[in-house]
Amino acid sequence: GRKIFYDGNLYGTTYYGGKYNVGAIYIYNPVSNIDSAVFSFNYIDGSVTGGDLFVFNDTSFYGMAESDSTNYDGIIYRFNPITNKETILYNFNGNTDGAYPQATFIKDSNGLLYGFAPQLGPGGYGTLFSFNPSTNVLTTLVNFNGSNGEYPLGDLFLASNGLLYGMAERGGSHNEGVLFSYNLSTSQYTILINFDSINGRYPDGGSVIEDTLNKILYGMTTTGGKYDDGVIFSYNLVTQKDSVLLNFDGTNGSVPSGTLLLVPDSLLGVQELGIRNYDIKIVPNPNNGIFSLSLPSSYWESGAVVVVYNMLGQQVYRMTNIEQGTLNIDISNEPSGVYLYRVITETGEPIGAGKFVIEK
Fold this sequence. Notes:
The chain is mainly beta. The chain is built from 3 helices and 27 strands. It has a 4-stranded antiparallel sheet with strand order 1-2-3-4, with no helix packed on it. The chain has a 4-stranded antiparallel sheet with strand order 5-6-7-8, with no helix packed on it. A 4-stranded antiparallel sheet has the order 9-10-11-12, with no helix packed on it. Strand 3 and strand 4 form a beta hairpin. The radius of gyration is 22 Å and the shape is globular.
């Protein structure tokens, strides 16, 4: 799965292995090139960790495991990267709140965590739930029952419009899966795409991503499409229309899985822009999310626009009409990782682009 960066190290989970061969949390130091399992799951503390760790704060990583010794339906746990200790926070009870959680948490602005339990629950085919890390209370938001989807897999995605988006592998009008939205304010669940083989079938793992500038979601299904080898699809949040962008046919790949990575075209290569990128300075780099971006006067005197993207292509910062040489930027609420910046004129002409690193 995806690795997370914390305190100069990479953390991740394994599905099997560890001391008891039922999964582990491992750490890798890219400087010393040393790796080790810092925690081994067992049948008491959970086993088979299908999802990734989620960094909540400096001393709390949250995750889910598919099995446990209480109800055998899975757990929510907290892992302390300082003490390397795990604490079970919640035991799923399959028939009432779902079973076998395996996705990665996402967090809203109120600090609530959201995830999937892909099986069982009152509807029989999984649940979408919220979890309050302050009270350890789990609330079921959606019970999947077949008509509204079956077996929600992959990760949820919180879009720029404030809605949650996710996919279920089966169910819907054609029993071939759905793309859905969930409104956190109104609790409204809406099916956006009923997959029907032509537009894809069986989205299994991964999540959708968003082109925030054009308000378009992108995702994949494992099969379906023209050659039944899977597709890349889009969903326009404005027009509410979906399209097949690529039909896999075996020669260009088959059965795609995981999550797409969206990087704006103008950020793919600095040399492609034909600009003097050395005139733009990010100080410090790496930084903790608080830094300054400096422009020579020839660029900012007529105004400029600065946009920052994360590696999913999501816009995390934008400032227009810049008329000073140094812009102080604070995106310290963003997680550690590599970020891309783009500087353009008010009329859209490229000035510069590059990358920097946030380390916390």
